[in-house]
Design goal:
Keywords: Heme, Iron, Metal-binding, Monooxygenase, Oxidoreductase. Pfam families: p450. By secondary structure, the chain is α+β, with helices and mostly antiparallel strands. The chain is built from 21 helices and ten strands. It has a five-stranded mixed β-sheet. A hairpin with a 2-residue loop joins strand 1 and strand 2. The protein is globular. It binds protoporphyrin IX containing FE. The site of protoporphyrin IX containing FE has 29 residues, from helix 15 and helix 21.
Amino acid sequence: MLVWIELLFCVFVVAFWWYKNDQRRYSKYPPGPVRLPIVGNVLQMLIKSTEFPALALQKLADEHGDVMFIKIAGGEAVVCSSCDAIKEMLNHENAIGRLQYEFIRDRHANRNLGVIWSWGPTWRNLRRFTVRNLRDFGFGKSSQMDSVINEELDKFLEHMRQQIRSAPNNTLYGVTDFFHLTFNNVLWRLVSGKSYGYHDPQMMELLRLNREFFNSTNFGLDLSETFPILRDLFPKWSGRAAQLKTSKDLFDYGRQMLEEQRQLGTYKEDPSCFLDVFIAKVEESRKDPNSDFNDDQFVTTILDLLVAGSETSSKTLTFGMLYMMLYPQVQEKVQEEIDQVVPDGFPIDSSMKSKLPYTSAVFLEVFRYSTVVPIPTAREATDDFIFRGFFIKKGTGIIANTQAVHFSEKLWGDPYTFRPERFLSEDGSGVDMKKADLLLTFGYGKRICLGMVLAETTTFLYFATMLRTFRLEKLPGANISLKPTLGITLGPQPFNVKIFVRVPKN
Ligand code: HEM
């Protein structure tokens, strides 16, 4: 008995010494939950939510504040949970690095590659080059984007009509994603000038790999990120083996694409697309061993655009279709507004958005309510700095909890209700821009989503055109769950939907 009391006493003394030491060490850091040895704050997060890191962090922030310090994912991180704090942080000149998750270290073999996860001058060079040259091929310019989008939309509507014709009782079963391939085509048209058929085996495989990559980790609550040793010891169980395989397959695909484009030779005289411009830059930089333009950067940058581009947009809009099925009165109001504004036989284009305030408000509510990127891929402090009086050390992860903002009771009153009117101005004639500015769907600051304008335009035109062309109905008695599927981004659970071709009433 005495031995046990002595042992307990020793444990207590060590724990007390450790706690005091930890408090002293982090006294200038933002407040946060007590950090436990080895596991940091993982247990506290798991207690708050075993599945959703954003929800766990939101609940911890309710106790510790908008700017909170935690230890997870093998490192230290500061978590911002209010709109003001996130904007101020993501705009900070020392908050523009990217945290290197273990699965990204593996994907890049520890190199500084691509646009999404790169840092320093390499990131700056690649981002600037990508934005400038994609613009030359219409990316981000309304008129050119609208025409590419509407051409792909025509093909998509025909594909949908065919699907509906062959569907029993107009019902599509197990829908998880309506738009993945068509959004990929829009993006790919602007990057390479090409688009793919709806059953193209190569593209289907690429999209499958992309989806697998997205579903392969759950960031903060992924134990193999917190304890990287698990990745070495149990590659299969930890998911590392699958991540390595998916990344390899994606990179093989990217290399094949590079070689095919190089063989065409169009990059030499008359670059016909972004791929050509990039290859020309790689050739021009051959003699410079320190150049940021080489084959691996080409492959990673192109894969980054694909990884970031189609899955995010298509999941958002599939959620949108699901909500329209669940809230038929909202669907009807959108259809009425579109019928009144858009002349019969004309395609919807970006310039009509301001004349469709209710549709725009619904669309913003879809972005808020779905929040497919609840925690944008974390930033990293590139230097020591003081933020709101707290010390942030170089190398600290920076997490923006977008979901906490999009579901804040303080900001929205009834965040868990789907209510598009919250985004309308008082007289209903336009969008309330102050409310729209509270959305952080695309991040903020210098690393804000590179494809934001394309994503907003594509999803809006598809959303409006889908509802103008089709009516969506829930199956009688169907029980629909709004609980999302997990992964880097959130998506809808498979659902069944009745779809009917409608005739616009104008
Ligand atoms: C609804 C669709 C989309 C959502 C919700 C979304 C969201 C985001 C978010 C939250 C970030 C992180 C921003 C930050 O750190 O502040 C990001 C980065 C990025 N997005 Fe998107 N995105 C979407 C569509 C697209 C599209 C269509 C592209 C196509 C090119 C794209 C390319 C990128 C790239 C390359 C980055 C990394 C930017 C950098 O680190 O400099 N995204 N996106």
